[in-house]
Amino acid sequence: MCGIVGAIGATDCTPFLLQGLRTLEYRGYDSAGLAVLDNGLQRARAKGRVAELEARVAEQQLQGQVGIAHTRWATHGVPAEHNAHPHVSAGLAVVHNGIIENYEALREKLQALGYAFTSDTDTETIAHLIHACLNGELDGEAPSADLFSAVQCAVAYLQGAYALAVISEDETDTLIVARQGSPLMLGVAEDGHYAASDASALLSVTKRMMYLENGDVARLTRDAIYLKDVSGQPVERDIVTSSLSANAVELGEFSHYMQKEIFEQPQALGNTLEMISGAGKLEPGIFGAEAAEVFQQVDSVLIIACGTSSYAGMTARYWVEQVAGLPCNVEIASEYRYRVSVANPRQLVVVISQSGETADTFAALEHAKAQGHTHTLAICNVPESAIVRETALRFITRAGPEIGVASTKAFTTQLSALFLLTLLLAKAHQRLDEADEKAYLDELRHLPVAVKNVLALEPSIKAWSRHFANKHHALFLGRGRHYPIALEGALKLKEISYIHAEAYPAGELKHGPLALVDAEMPVVVVAPNDELLEKLKANMQEVSARGGQLYVFADGGSQVTSSEGVNVLQMPEHYGLLSPVLHVVALQLLSYHVALVKGTDVDKPRNLAKSVTVE
Ligand code: M6R
To answer: Backbone dihedral region of 600: left (phi > 0), alpha (psi from -120 to 50 degrees) or beta?
Structure first.
């Protein structure tokens, strides 16, 4: 979604701002803008890509030692130049991530004071609010002494989520930032200070970062950072050295981030499972110091997530119930957060999120706690994220930065973490003997190699992709723990190739979707050689009998053979309970190659954003 960068230093900051915006492009956006202080406030904005903004910045010859910039993903108001940030009020400019829920009331209040609005955004109210605070126009308040106090005054009026960066031509040595709900971090470098909504945007200048807490307002000058917390008290925040490397967010030899991330999966899984590499047995401490006690106390599991992360949860449900013998439910975060449900204090609430910033998942976690849940665990790829900071237990997947909007390596590493969790719950409830534990650990350790073997099938999968590219619809079928994999395969195809795809548990076919099947309908079948294969074969017959075109991902030994209308891709040998991890990799490759044939924007599909930080 939206991205923020800001800088204050001794040299022209526009190259950093533009580079920062390019780094944030992956989050999804539809317009971009930049403002600098140079003989007054100067601004450039453009609808479309950062490259268009760059051209405007060059045309207008913008430069300055203090500046802010933004990529906007439209919420309030269409994608258009007049809605792009920064928004200005007289000589001050604001960029904003998040949503101001009471913006309509604020807009009316400001209009009554004579402020004229030029955009449809909620953000413009913030610019005018700060200006009104500086002038002492609000509710009999005295004029704010400076920009810092004016921002403090303005944020007190805001309801909702925000990360803000503000500059003013009246204070040329100051950059003010503030956050509530939306992420914002500062970069501490020799040559100045920086701000960004995502650590990756700071890596070109520094790895030394300071994470702002909710309610913080900070003044950045070239050589100092001054902070006040939510209660208005001066406060200091730790500087941490980021473990991210600038290389990790570069494309290297690959054509797309999605392709790079699909092929990084053996490494990502190896890194995530590193702690068990030499271990003869599993220790609960990998989920946090109190995990041993909690895992014994809990009597059931509630998994909450969105999108791909929720499909990881749905897969894990099969594992938790079968191996650990504990009841497990999976909830979509955006539904759960508004549902009246019955809390069980002995339930383990597991939130799964690649980014750790997904607004619905975060709110669902808060909701669970408010309902009386006490045992919370996050599975997340970003250690410093809001969700990780809110749970008692955590497991950080080590997938590395995921830039492509379509989640790939984050999903398979989430699955590996959930399998570890399953084994530990099983151990805590005396459901796992030593021999089984060792066998599962061996399978996990071999997983990176098994995934490599699936990646080697790319040429055959690529050959299939041409059959899909001119289709408007596709069905995905799976059964048991591979049904969530069918759901994930359908999501991958629809999000990057814009082909309408639906997934069904294969047994449901004749209860409705079979009516859609004809010679134009590709039907993808996830067909592992497991206990449900014979049932699945019967479902495939139902499709063939109606002229449907089958594309079957069959394990070695499945004995499903190609024939007229039945295309079979031979996967490696069946991989038992961990087979979903292998099958999903094949489906990721399929959707990637279909999107390539269709020529869509693989890494930045239309209308989507990488981190969904608004509701
Ligand atoms: O960062 P999260 O895992 O919380 O994101 C949840 C979904 O937005 C995400 O998984 C989305 O469905 C994927 N990008 C789809 O590939």
So the answer is: beta
